[in-house]
Amino acid sequence: MKSELSPIPPEGAVPVAKASADAQGTTDRSIATRDRSLIRAWAERHQAEPATGQATSSGPATVNVADGDAGVRFNFPGMRRFRPISWDEWFQHFEEHHLVFVYEEEVADRAYQLWAVRGRDLGHDLEDWFDAERQLGSAGHSGAGYRIVRVG
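Above: the chain sequence. Below: its structure as C-alpha cells.
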C-alpha cells in the first residue's frame, strides 16, 4: 500500500483509482490526503467527531479495536461510540504515526475538482455538480467510506 499512496502532499489531496468499474463504466475513486483542513471538512460533512479506541495520554482504551494500528477514528451519529478526543490529539497521533486519510470520492469532491480545473471560474456550479454526478454514477455513493492507513 505504501507505493499506492505515496507521495501524499501536506496540503491538498491525490486521487487513488480503484481497479473495478461497474456496468456503466464508472469507477469508484478514493481520495488520499494528509491535509488537516480537508480531513476536518470531510468530518464536518459527515457529522464525524475525532475519537480513539486506544489508550493515549488523555485517557484509557475504551475497546479493543483491530485497526491496523491507526489508533484514530471517528464517532458518527447513531453508531457505536469510541472515546472522543480533541482534534489536536487526533492530528498529533495522525502525524506521529505517518498516517494518511483515504476516503471515497463524493459528488461534491468531483464537482470541486471540475471547478478547480476550469480555473475556479464562477457561475458553473450546477453544471459541475451534474457532470460530477454523471462521472461518478452517484446513485450508489453513500460517501461515508473512509480508512486511515500508515505509509511510513
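The CA atoms of residues 98 and 152 lie 5 Å apart.
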